[in-house]
Amino acid sequence: METGEYESPAARSLGKKVxxxxxxxxxxxxxxxxxxxxxxxxxxxxxxxxxxxxxTLCGHAVRLTHREPGTPQVTLELKTSFIGRADVGVxxxxxxxxxxxxxxxxxxxxxxxxxxxxxxxxxxxxxVGA
Length: 130
Hints:
Blueprint: H1 9-13, E1 17-22, E2 27-34, H2 47-63, E3 73-82, E4 89-100, E5 104-112, E6 118-128
Antiparallel strand pairs: 1-2, 2-4, 3-6, 4-5, 5-6
């Protein structure tokens, strides 16, 4: 099982740090560093970066459920809802597998700011063994 020791260059660029994993239920908790380079014209974190963080959480949660390490997967769909304000700083997220089949998995994720307020959430469909 993949435990999160290796992070992709994309995840590292988002400042991802794994806090907790539970492979038995396909769950991951991680923090991200939303830096000054992530802000939009309004001074808030650009939604595309939040979506990337959520995609990373969904993908990590699904990877935890693979029987064979290194099983390929790809996100087929990511639905993102932006709910609150995300500012520069640390964001904490959780991702979990909602349903896992042989070749398709469904996952969800949420991101919260330092005050614990929900800033964005997502649901994803992933193809496993892509």
